[in-house]
Design brief:
The protein has helices at residues 2-42, 47-59, 77-87, 92-107, 128-139, 154-157, 164-181, 231-243, 257-266, 275-278, 293-306, 313-322, 338-350, 356-373, 378-393, 414-425, 440-443, 450-462, 483-494, 517-529, 543-550, 555-562, 577-590, 597-606, 622-632; strands spanning 116-121, 149-153, 186-190, 222-227, 284-287, 326-327, 330-331, 402-407, 435-439, 472-476, 508-513, 568-571, 610-611, 614-615. Helix 11 (293-306) packs across helix 12 (313-322). It has a five-stranded parallel sheet with strand order 2-3-4-1-5, sandwiched between helices. It has a five-stranded parallel sheet with strand order 9-10-11-8-12. It is of the alpha/beta class. The longest helix has 41 residues, at 2-42.
Length: 633
């Protein structure tokens, strides 16, 4: 009995020893981990700080949500100044007054004695809302979507004059709540002249020189009032000054400030007899001067730029004189209605290409798009644009269709260029009834149906078209089409009079083929090896390739290539790594992402195959690869 007890005690003692030992091991392991983590985070290596910053960001809610911090409220004064100089027209007084006012407020935020309060006065379309939008855009990371930007509109927020007392109470409550959440909030009141008189009386005290009102500090906030009140008076004053020989740009704020102040105080509206005016609480009355024709012209160009177009001077002049109403020297509505008018002109050009203005609009827009979105294809751009411009400018005198043949390896941009052409020529793009697309054997699959295919082609070519509205016929993968199909196309191109419609002579025919692609790549490789940069090669360096290549193809393609029907052979050059990088960046931007350089380099080197200098598949397979990478993020 005692022996068994002794054995049990011994076993229990061994168990306790093992437990203690295990605890020591765990303790040592934890200690080592803590020491390692401490060195990893706080060691002297440069990576320690970066790792600490990442951990701090991962637990900081402001890394994920907008906060009232400099990260989200940027106060980009210099960026705003540059944008005003580029995008605001005819408002030299605003430019010279606004920036110092904002800079002084932002520079002295912590010692500010009162909120910055400004009132913008002028007739419609002179830029009051535009300037406000730019301020918001440059001050707040999320622009108008920032939760620290508060806008009030007369007809939406204060529609009933009889309820002005209710509006006063609501307004002071909303502003106090907003400033408690963020001292650097901005408040914009639009159409002040349409607001009920007295609506702002409740907020006069918070605009004054007080440290706190009701326990809330308003001194870092910005208040902007926008009104048409005083606009006519400002216009009359400017007209009078100019009639005496003073140039517009020589006028000063002192010439208009009192006019704006008196108009705001006396005209019916939210500021009529307002105590904030009587008490001098508005820091700046900014006059927005009425616009002359030259300023309207600048607005027109800016509107075209928004839709990525570059109009000719005659296009601009036409809109300035025919689409805009004037009262004496000045535009009646400023630049307010130009956006829709420019878009309307664009729509007119989609309906036909008779006018030189519309031809210029379409071709210049296409050229701009090609330069932005095509990589490594300088020869294509330099050849295609003059060819299309010449054809469109002479549609009525055209004796034959414009026929072009695009050659190159996969992914060099042949189909992409076609897509851009139809996008700029037709409102519906590829879905337009004027666009006829045929794909190799997909549209002509069976040998025993070639007669039917040929008949359909002739019918398509004979389709009546409106004058000045050319159809486009695109044949993709022509190297895979059947010889008899080529023969039928060639016979029509040889004698366009076979078609019922004389307007077929205004048509554009484009062949897309990989034929000659390898030879183009070899020729370019040799040129680069001999010291000629990619961008200095010319179309003449490659033209001989097409005829030689055609000799080794099916009889039908050979006939088309060697017959003289084709006006332009366009070589699409193989793409180098730098061109693929351009494609990668473009695809990221389509997804509203701005990739880092290392992300672009990683894709270029790891997602793509190369043969010597050139990408094996061009940019063809990038879309899905980048979409997949973004999904992984």
């Amino acid at each position: 009995m005692h022996f068994h007890l002794v054995v049990q005690l011994l076993v229990f003692s061994l168990f306790l020893i093992n437990v203690v030992h295990s605890i020591e091991l765990v303790t040592m392991t934890i200690g080592a981990a803590v020491v390692g983590a401490g060195y990893w985070l706080f060691g002297k290596s440069d990576g320690g700080k970066d790792r600490r910053d990442k951990i701090r960001d991962s637990v900081d809610p402001c890394s994920y949500y907008e906060c009232c911090t400099p990260k989200y409220i940027t106060y980009d004064i210099e960026g705003l100044k540059a944008d005003l100089q580029k995008r605001l027209f005819g408002q030299h007084i605003v430019n010279t007054t606004l920036i110092p006012a904002l800079r002084a407020h932002v520079k002295n935020l912590e010692s500010s004695e009162k909120p910055l309060v400004m009132s913008f006065h002028g007739t419609m379309g002179t830029g009051k809302n535009h300037v406000t939008d730019l301020i918001v855009e440059h001050f707040y990371k999320y622009g108008e979507d920032s939760k620290y930007v508060h806008k009030y509109y007369a007809r939406r927020d204060f529609p009933i004059a009889a309820e002005v007392e209710l509006y006063r109470v609501r307004l002071i409550i909303e502003i106090e709540e907003a400033v408690r959440k963020c001292k650097r909030s901005i408040f914009v009141f639009d159409e002040v002249e349409k607001m009920p008189a007295g609506v702002f009386e409740s907020i006069a005290s918070i605009l004054d020189y007080h440290n706190h009102v009701g326990g809330t500090d308003f001194r870092q906030a910005i208040f902007i009032f926008l009104t048409n009140a005083g606009g006519d008076e400002i216009a009359n004053a400017l007209n009078g000054i100019m009639s005496k020989g003073t140039f517009r740009e020589q006028t000063k704020i002192q010439d208009f400030e009192y006019i704006a102040e008196m108009a705001a105080y006396n005209v019916e509206g939210g500021l009529k007899s307002a105590s904030m005016i009587k008490s001098g609480l508005i820091d700046h009355f900014l006059p927005f001067l009425p616009l002359e024709r030259r300023h309207i012209a600048s607005c027109v160009r800016a509107e075209f730029q928004k839709i990525k177009q570059k109009p000719k001077d005659e296009d601009v002049s036409y809109i300035v004189e025919n689409y805009v109403s004037y009262q004496g020297l000045f535009s009646k509505y400023g630049c307010k209605r130009l956006n829709k008018k420019v878009q309307a002109m664009v729509e007119e050009c989609y309906d036909g290409l008779c006018s030189p203005e519309c031809v210029a609009y379409v071709i210049d827009g296409l050229k701009s798009d090609l330069k932005r979105h095509m990589f490594g294809q300088h020869i294509v751009i330099d050849t295609l644009i003059p060819a299309l411009r010449n054809h469109l400018e002479n549609l009525e005198r055209s004796k034959k269709p414009l026929v072009m043949s695009f050659h190159g390896t996969m992914g060099t941009g042949k189909n992409y260029v076609v897509d851009l052409i139809v996008k700029h020529f037709y409102k519906e793009g590829k879905n337009s009834e004027k666009v006829h697309m045929y794909h190799g054997r997909a549209d002509f699959p069976y040998d025993n149906e070639v007669d039917r295919y040929s008949a359909q082609l002739v019918k398509d070519f004979q389709t009546e078209t409106q004058s000045c509205d050319p159809s486009i016929f695109i044949f993709d993968e022509v190297d895979k089409m059947r010889p008899i199909i080529y023969n039928r196309i060639a016979s029509i191109l040889d004698d366009p009079s076979q078609t019922v419609s004389k307007d077929f002579r205004q048509a554009i025919v484009i062949f897309l083929s990989n034929v000659g692609g390898d030879e183009i790549a070899n020729t370019l490789d040799q040129k680069i090896a001999q010291g000629t940069p990619h961008e200095q090669t010319k179309v003449q360096d490659f033209e001989h390739i097409f005829e030689v290549s055609a000799q080794n193809t099916e009889d039908g393609l050979k006939r088309i290539v060697t017959s003289g029907f084709i006006d332009h052979f366009l070589p699409f050059l193989p793409l180098e790594r730098r061109h693929v990088a351009g494609c990668v960046q473009a695809e990221f931007r389509k997804l509203n992402r701005e990739p880092k350089e290392e992300d672009v380099s990683y894709i270029v080197e790891n997602y793509m195959s190369y043969q010597g200098l050139f990408s094996k598949y061009g940019c063809k397979r990038l879309i899905k690869k980048i979409q997949s990478m973004v999904e992984e993020w």
